Amino acid sequence: MVQVNGTNRRALPPTSYLRIFEPLRAFSDADQRLAVASGRINRETMEDASACAALQRLTRPASDPFPHRHTETFRKLVTTTWDGTVNTLYCPDQLATRTILASEQLDGSMRPQLLELLVPDAARAANALRVDRQRFTDDLAHLHTRTATWGIPFGWLILVHEDDEVDVIEDGEELLASRIYTPLPQALDRVRYAAATLAIHAPEMDLLDELAALSEWLQLFDKESVVELDYGRIAALVWPDDSPHDLRLGIESLAESDMTGAAASYRRLSNRWLAVRQLARAN
């Protein structure tokens, strides 16, 4: 359990993250140098700085959420294997690319007049001139971070189990984040098993398409990578969270053709996240 000061994080909407941490060898020479330099920065210091920068972008006098001068940063994760081997893994922030993707998602979800207020055409045009096209293309092909606001996609929860390694981050008595870690091969096995079970017993579920996309995404990365499910500020609303356990039981019930058990697991899962969805609509 880690104690930090999370003032900046509390000012942002509750957001969760699914990240892939890869070995240093997975990156270019230039990125390896950036990763090692970033790795000297404490993780929570980096998270606070990231939240502060996001607030500054969102509160500019002229609406412009894009980063102007940004050097790539890398989060660092140190793991120990069963035989005592210590591995250091890295996850690039890819902020410039992720902000463009976020603005494109808004483009299809709100009225043009409101979109122009939040992400003006002038800001988009200026950002297009700043973007490194090759870097953007490379990031799209190898995006290390997925983001969700006011919730956690159920597909992400299938990747982790209740007995995986966990970090809990607190500010005094307030929960700022909970992070679950699992080796990428295990996450891939879990998502494949769940997808195969749904394909046989519940092929009409939307979750099946999500699992197929997650499986394809995980296969892009080094086999010695680690998956991190970061609840972020969502943790304050649901932690301790039994959702991974309920999803696993639901999938196992489907595999055994126990529809009553599967329905009970799904009902517990839905009820747990109902309050979060209601808060999201209220905001």
Automatic annotation (TrEMBL):
Alphabetized InterPro entries for the sequence: DUF8083
One Pfam family cited in the UniProt record for this chain: DUF8083
Domain of life from the UniProt record: Bacteria
Stretches assigned to the DUF8083 domain: 15-279
Full protein name: DUF8083 domain-containing protein
